[in-house]
Amino acid sequence: MIIPSHLDKLRRLRALRARLDPLDDFELWYWTTLTAGTNALNAVLHHAKLTTDAPIFSTIPGVHVVRRPDGTFARELRGPGDVSHVGWPPIEGEIPADVAGLMDALHAIEMHRDPCIRGTRAATPGIVAECEANFARVVGVVAGRFEEVDA
Amino acid sequence: MNADGHREKAERITRSAMRCGPGDWEMRIEAAMLAGTHWANHALHCAGVTPDDEDVVHTSMLVVNMLRKYAIVEGELLAALAEIEELRPLHVRGDVEGGHAAADRAMALLETIERRARRHDASRSGG
Q1: Which chain A residues touch B61 with a CB distance below 8 Å?
Q2: Is residue A60 part of a domain?
Q3: What is the mean pLDDT of residues A81-109?
Q4: Residue A101 lies in a domain
Q5: What is the pLDDT of residue B126?
Q6: The complex's ipTM?
Q7: pLDDT band for position B63 (50/70/90)?
Q8: Domain assignment present for A79
Q9: Residues 6+ apart with CB under 8 A from B106
Q10: CA distance linking residue B4 with residue A62, whole number of Å
Q11: How far apart are CA A132 and CA A110, in angstroms?
């Protein structure tokens, strides 16, 4: 997906995060954080020329939804585009330090996904604080590359 | 996770989704996917099709034969969940026009899923 669309989603998802209660709405607050972070990751990966910003949409690695000339959409086998998670698919090439830092921070957020969203681990103020700190790192990297994004 | 745990998660996520506005179509679709998946697991556990330690994560990731097995009992519910999953590449991971309408459709599908899943609660309580 193109960079402006990633940044638009990041902006709107950050606004939604602020309206959700991190504990009372933990599941959706967390998922909003995760989705915003993934858009941030894809924006910087495209900006660093590590992945393409083609207007195609990821499903599983190597398979993207593509608009056909008749306006319909279909799955096609394509090379690296947007990633769905850190390391899924892996990124080839030399990764700049700021991008690596963003990936580390997002991966730390992702570690709470299965236990807290699909499992029975209860959200705690400590988990929320950890996610907040790592999300701030994510946004900081994006702000360093795109002047229209506030840290 | 057991059936009651899935129901509680689904209810929490659905309640949180009510705090989304019309411009939050990505999270309305994702909420429908997340809550709908918990409802699917609730229904499958209650029906005795899956044990507590066998949860569906995404219908799109299921082995075909397992999806066929689950669909014997909850075909309509799983079809609704699959339709929500199909909205995600276009409107959550994509920027295709029509996000508002897609989110409305996802939430309507979630209502269908919840209604079907809750039938098991009525059966369990003898209602």
Answers
A1: 60
A2: no
A3: 95
A4: yes
A5: 61
A6: 0.95
A7: confident
A8: no
A9: B28, B29, B32, B33, B84, B87
A10: 37
A11: 12
For residues A85-108, b (16+ Cβ closer than 10 Å) or e, as one string?
A: ebeebebeeeeeebbebbbebbeb
**Alpha-carbon dihedral of residues A98, A22, A1, B64, nearest 10 degrees?**
120
**A78 domain-assigned:** no
Contact B90 A65 (CB under 8 A): yes
Q: State how far the Cα of B36 lies from the Cα of B48, in Å rounded to an integer.
A: 18
B84 and B110 Cβ atoms separated by less than 8 Å: yes
Cα(A88)–Cα(A91) distance, integer angstroms: 8
Domain residues for A137?
Answer: 3-53+85-145
Flag if B89 and A20 touch (Cβ within 8 Å): no
The DSSP bridge partners found for residue A66 are: A74
Asked if A51 reaches chain B (Cβ–Cβ under 8 Å), the answer is: no
Q: A interface mutation test: which of B1, B13, B16, B30 has the most A CBs within 10 A?
A: B16
**Is B13's CB within 8 Å of A28's CB?**
yes
- Residue A2, by phi and psi: left (phi above 0), alpha (psi -120 to 50) or beta? beta
For B97, which DSSP code? S
DSSP B1: -
- Chain A and chain B share a number of CB contacts under 8 A equal to 80
Tokens of A94: 């030399």
* Torsion from C-alpha of B86, A14, A115, A133, nearest 10 degrees: 150
Put simply, the answer to whether B93 touches A82 (Cβ < 8 Å) is yes
Question: DSSP letter at A88?
Answer: B
The domain total for chain A is: 1
On whether any CB of chain B is under 8 Å from the CB of A71, the answer is: no
User: Would you say the pTM of this structure is higher than 0.90?
Assistant: yes
Q: Pairing mode, if any, of strands A63-67 and A57-58?
A: antiparallel
Residue whose entry in the numeric block shows the structure tokens 């580390």: A104
Minimum mean pLDDT range among A64-68, A73-77, B21-25, B70-74: B70-74
